[in-house]
Write a structure and sequence with these properties.
With 127 residues, the protein is an alpha+beta fold. It contains 3 helices and 7 strands, in the order αββββαββαβ. The longest helix is centred in the middle third of the chain and has 5 residues.
Amino acid sequence: MPIKSGSTTISLTGTGTDHAAADGPIDMGFKSNRQPVGKFQGIEVWGPYDAPGQLGIWGTDVCVDFDICISDGACIDACPVNVYEWLDTPGHPASEKKPFMIREKDCIFCLACENVCPPQAIKIFVK
């Protein structure tokens, strides 16, 4: 169940089987090319979304394509203000955890995370 009917809260569990191997970089125009499908702990999620196999792009200013992300933790280590923390994503084919931008509002737009991401799964929209 990717989205509960009438709700803006998405679930990380489901029976989704959609998964296409996604290579970076992140789609820079995703806000025009994709639709928001809901939120997770207040963070916007952009589709397509079919958990657990396809998780889409997460964030509004600090954005990570969870289908490209290889979860090496470079962004978590690079962030000087601790925007990210690990989020369990059980069943996702690429990795069972993702760097979740839970403190997106604390971003100082230094671009450190964007610059260290090996598959270029991160886009920071500088204010």
